[in-house]
Amino acid sequence: MKLIKIKIRRFKELVTGILMRSGAKWSLIRLNAVDYVLDGFQFTNKEYIACESEIKEDTILHRILSIKNKKDNISPIKDTNILDDNNLLYSSLKRDEMLVAVCLHREDVLYVGKIKDIGEKSFILKLYNTDLQNCGAMKIDFVKVRYIQIHTDYLDSLCLLLDS
């Protein structure tokens, strides 16, 4: 298991998590939101990773998260090729009708929704607000996406209502 901290260009906060897999375009991280909490997954656009550092194995954080990760042993992706290609990643999220949180240029803004259409260099995200009301749609260029989160407690909680 590789526990890492990454710095996303122009963002203040570091992202901590377990590196699940890495491809040509995307890294998949199991998020360590706070303390010893594993909360969802993040596809991080490698174009925006300023630096990455590994957390030493002898730290208590590494030891606890290693045990928790082995116990859960989950991965949100079956096809590792999606980390090499934008269209494959977005097509997979669309096919699975995944509720996603997309981060662009501001770390304090996440766009929550489902991918509805995919073009050659962009996709359409059907947006939801915090009350799960449809807020229209937004065209997002692939190159502007810094990261995409899935299966966080927040998103899974919203799915409870969406799926009912």
How does this structure look, described?
This protein is α+β, with helices and mostly antiparallel strands and 164 residues long. It has three helices and ten strands, in the order E-E-E-E-E-H-H-E-E-E-E-E-H. The chain has helices at 60-72, 86-95, 153-162; strands at 2-8, 14-22, 26-34, 37-45, 49-54, 99-103, 110-118, 122-128, 134-141, 147-150. A ten-stranded antiparallel β-sheet has the order 5-1-2-3-4-10-6-7-8-9, with helices on both faces. Strand 3 (26-34) and strand 4 (37-45) form a beta hairpin. The longest helix has 13 residues, at 60-72. The termini are far apart. The relative contact order is 0.18. The mean pLDDT is 95.
In the sheet with the most strands, the strands line up as: 5-1-2-3-4-10-6-7-8-9
Extract low-pLDDT stretches: none
Report the portion of residues in β strands: 35-45%
Oligomer: single chain
Shape: globular
Helix tally equals 3
Structural class per helix/strand content?
Answer: alpha+beta
Order of helices and strands: EEEEEHHEEEEEH
Radius of gyration: 16 Å
Give average pLDDT, whole number.
95
SS elements, strand count: 10
Helix content: 10-25%
Question: Span between N and C termini?
Answer: 36 Å
Largest sheet: 10 strands, antiparallel
